[in-house]
């Protein structure tokens, strides 16, 4: 955004210190990108009036002029410009003047006659006006007036980088408010405008059909206007120095109101509106030629302005149509001033391939309370510049969402800021920002102004206070924190432990986009949760991921395509099952693929289910009772090589080999093994119990059972553990055998049991324990001792 420094100065009763103001704005987040003088350095040039003009006796193309430069005696100046004439007022460089690029004016003899100065063109003083000849000044120019003062050339154009959340600063009024809050400079009283809206517009239909997207719409009709003239110099100057190109008085007035107040406006040719106006949602197949010549095919449900025959005449908040635009021949107009919801305008200009200052402001949010002031100011200027008379007005006002109220404790705020700021100063900062502050007990209830769409939560208010107070005023100091021990109980430490453990086992961490292609979603997304689709996809990434399996598999494909034949990667990130925080849990997923990292004494082999299972055991065995149960119905995993991960009785995730049906569409000849857990289901609280190491020896016993092949070995171990034999230290499987003399439908499972007690175990005790185990296996699984 560009502004004229001198014009901005006019909003204040005090003279602004430019260096201080620009530095404070930059430090507060409104970065100054550039500062450009409106004219180069020069001196000694004043307003001169030509009081006589004769041809040079010895040169056909030179004129001998007498010029009143405000210094008493007229100056004799020889001039070669074709537009010099008696009575014109022009820039006059007197002897001793210094023009741009250090060109000095001195007495000079030209064809036998002396010249005591120089009459200047716009180019010669760095103010090009497109005229081949002298820069002609208005008749109100007083001879002798410094030309820099008369043309307001001691000005500079400041360009600001306004962040998307600060749409309230896209105007002179908004910047002035911000400067007042940051520096304390006093603003002039707000100008009061005459009310032109009292009379209703007769014989003119008004159809506001989408008031949920346009809560406030005001129109004002004016007739007998003259648009076939040039805009006044003051208006042209303000627009040009604000980065806008003057076009016609009516367009220039609406643009001026926009940069002054921040309210985009539009002027329709009233005679081309078919006796009515309205706004509604576009229908499929509608077309509109825009002011810039673009042929727009309207998108269904986009907000459009329509005429009395329900034909689109503008894309609301973006750009008007060519057919209803004002021209030099326009004599009656309808001024439009509206508040369109930011979400109704956001992205529309880009979608239609156009750019407009109106859309830039509307999609960031304009003041919903300023439409009347804006249209009254515009009407005042139209009547002053173009003449005419007000015919009547139309209104549509719907109650907008009540302004948010934010409760905050100043004591908590100061703890976060780390600086002692007086309560009175905080109240003043917020009041200067336009906030209402109400004391309720030991808290303050803050109501932000309607134009601050970015102030929604407690942290926003804290940010505003520290921003205005000044980050540079906060002294560096050690943080004061409540002392507590960091341990595995900390969620952050828990995540760090998992990451470190995986890295120590040869894994690399990956960080992926939260968006995935629809093709990956169809193959690998979690079918238990609906996919969240993006309205504006980024390069084909059309949906939010609802698991991390898509990411690690995509990483595997990427590495295989680059020649890698083995891989271990993991990702710790959020997945998206809904819009609430609870529906966006933190998942941990890991993938192993290819050859097992064999030592010098081992043969190389492909990784298998048990490699992954041991990794999962290393990660989670410290968090309580870890179990694995059979899983056959997950469409992403091999039905015979998959298990649920159970911690303390809670199903927290899954591990297994990718389903064979996915190999071909993913281009994978060898299928990877993957685990995925929902970390929110794993409680970080770990209780430790200490006990003395038994001084009595352990006793190992082996039992082998013949079982049906359909029996899950994990179920046998669970059943044995349920016996709660106090002296049973551990039970493990060390062999599974099929074939030989066993029937095809049976298998032999060998179990190792380790017993230890607080005394030396007797043979009778051990035999009794083994008998309990044999009975349990026989009764529940029809197992026979081999």
Automatic annotation (TrEMBL):
Residues 401-476 form the B5 domain. The keyword Metal-binding applies. It is an enzyme of class 6 (ligase). Its EC number is 6.1.1.20. It catalyses: tRNA(Phe) + L-phenylalanine + ATP = L-phenylalanyl-tRNA(Phe) + AMP + diphosphate + H(+). Belongs to the phenylalanyl-tRNA synthetase beta subunit family. Type 1 subfamily. Tetramer of two alpha and two beta subunits. This is Phenylalanine--tRNA ligase beta subunit. It comes from Aquella oligotrophica. The gene is pheT.
